[in-house]
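Researcher: Let's try something more involved. This one mixes different molecule types, so please make sure each is placed in the same coordinate frame as the others.
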Amino acid sequence: MARVRFREASIIPGFRLTFGFTIFYLSLIVLIPIVGLYIKTFELDWERFQAIVTGPRFMAALSLSFGASLLAALFNVAIGTVIAWVLVRYRFTGRRLLDAVVDLPFALPTAVAGIALTALYVPQGWFGRFFSPFGITIAYTPIGIWIALVFIGLPFVVRTVQPVLEDFNREVEEAAATLGAPRRTTILRVILPPLIPAILTGFALAFARAVGEYGSVIFIAGNIPRKTEILPLLIVFRLEERDYAAAAAIAAVMLTMSFVILLAINLMQVWSYRRFGNG
Amino acid sequence: MKRLISGLVLSAALSAGVAVGAAQAQDVKLVNVSYDPTRELYRDYSDYFVKFWKDKTGKTVEISNSHGGSGAQVRSVIDGLPADVVTFPLEGDILGIEQKGLINADWKSKFPDASSPYTSTIVFLVRKGNPKAIKDWDDLAKKGTVVITPNPKTSGGARWNYLAAWAYELDRSKGDQKKAQDFVAAIYQNVAVLDSGARGSTNTFVQNKVGDVLIAWENEALLSLKEFGADYEIVVPSVSILAEVKIAIVDKNVDKKGTRELAKAFLDQLYSPEAQKIFARNFYRPGKPEHVDPADLKAFPKVKLVKIDDVFGGWAKAQPTHFDNGGIFDKIYSKN
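Model: All components are placed in one shared frame. Result:
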């Protein structure tokens, strides 16, 4: 049996230093707070923990948070890919401006986004008034939550797909055309496959961001228990009651679920690289 | 690794130095941690107090007022926000800080009127012409009325709203607690948006035009009327609750910072005739109305006001019974 070595010999110097720094930094910024969160959770006995994370209100908030985030991330995948395509493939006046606009959801404080979206989508707001005659209410319903999550998640997909599309080898496309492939086949079988890893990354980022989002959602959600109450709000309630262990328990469950989902996406990515990757 | 450690030590030393420098400059600073709708009030009062302190001691004091939902504000103080004084909408908030040992247990006897320089109550704000003909609490429980109130979990004012509704039904049913609970549950069935603080609910009702009635602090309702008078009306219910605002010195913090004298003066002056006038101007009911122009008192109609100590056995009892995790407020929402 070959001895498993900690690292392959590399001709680039500085491994020890950079690796040490990476571990140190990740521990300081990411791992220690998260480990602390799990340790705090262990202050609860099993029965209390179970009561917290299986109650009907918790389950309702859980499915709302993860469901709305999933739908928002999927929507962003479709729209974000189209936007990336337009920005990369076409030349038009105002392209740079449009390109910059995509990043705005990053820059805007999320509370501002939430308040602005709410004002637009309430029944008497600029957009909301077009929906209310049909009996559709957007603000203070799950649809409003979804809109806020779409807003904050948009840049992730655009910014991950865009560079891949920019580097895309035009010759391959031309080869497909000369070999007689119709445009549809070229898009589906030539252009899309190499984009899949980037799209998955964008999806994962948008999804993860949406699950944890609090600032913007809280304004547009309505926050009615079992209807429009998101998981992060339940955490805030437990904090207000100064029940830090219960807050940590909810956060730990959220984190674990997100981690499993992100890991699954990562594995899918590895698979898709092998399957479609041009490397 | 050695270089890394020495770097860390250096940066730790630097940040410690910065902290010391900051502490020295903070000598004549006072931090007042308050609740959501008192922004205008404490801005006015701080202007008055800065002048008062300058005349008295010749020193310039810088006052920073922190506002937010009282639940979060309490937590900030417990978690280390260096508040010198706290001015909160209900006794329960200060009890929470007292339990953590930051405030001495005798705080309520330190200032006149059980440490309550002004009061307020809960009224309704409705749209012009009162299209849903809302007159009293029972109109809020009717099907089809859309009610806006903040979340009692995060907002002190919202807890007063809830208790006022409870007190009304208790009064009407001659003390039937079960009926009171069903009544309050019926009102919360009609709530469309539970914002985290009183100001958020006012915005939802006034700016976003959602709902038929806002259950609000009297001061918030009067302020909305002042700013958007033409569009709203105030409805005063037959019974409401006397919302006793509470103030306290954060003993542990002032002893550490050496600001006790300043903090005490800041709260003492809340009982001065000038401060009482400032309260009335900002639509809070002054504790000593004799100092205030009768014209400014006209804004406050006579209401039958019940006291929390009489009906609910005080905050120490009302908080766990109604608002803590698993309390009656949670039960109301776990039924349907």
